Amino acid sequence: MHKWIMSGVFFAACALAIVLMFTLPGKEEVAQEAKPTMPEVTMDAGQAETLVKANCISCHGDQLQGGVGPALANIGSKDDVEKIYSTIVKGKGGMPSFKGRLQDEEIAHIAMWLAEKK
């Protein structure tokens, strides 16, 4: 009787392993989810400044000098536009994600505008 139970458990574990192999995402899919893709837009500096004033200055300061959040006045010399975009979308440390708060195109405008701050 014990052999039958162990055989059944082994069979169930093998079946579950096979199902998981075909349903779990692969490394490539997980990497794509981890790195958001920035939409192609032509930067609108006016819109970017308006968005920054409405969403960023409370933590990063009105001159991007820093405050609760880090200074962004020279962020373009440290990070490229893709990294800035990813940080805004996903959040980082104490910074919340702006995915869902802002449209992807708005985040792209902000990232492109900040990337020029060198």
From TrEMBL:
Q: Give GO terms: molecular function aspect only.
A: electron transfer activity; heme binding; iron ion binding
Signal peptide limits? none
Q: Where does heme c bind?
A: C56, C59, H60, M95
Query: What single Pfam family name could you report for this chain, choosing any that match?
Result: Cytochrome_CBB3
Q: Which UniProt keywords apply?
A: Electron transport, Heme, Iron, Metal-binding, Transport
> What does the PTM comment of the record read?
Binds 1 heme c group covalently per subunit.
Q: Transmembrane residues, as ranges?
A: none
What InterPro entries has UniProt attached to this entry?
Cyt_c-like_dom, Cyt_c-like_dom_sf, Cyt_c_BACSU-c550-type, Cyt_C_IC, Cytochrome_c550/c551-like
Residue limits of the Cytochrome c domain?
Answer: 43-118
Q: Does the keyword Cytoplasm apply?
A: no
Q: Which GO terms describe its cellular component?
A: membrane
Protein name in UniProt = Cytochrome c
Q: What organism does the UniProt record list as the source?
A: Paenibacillus silvae
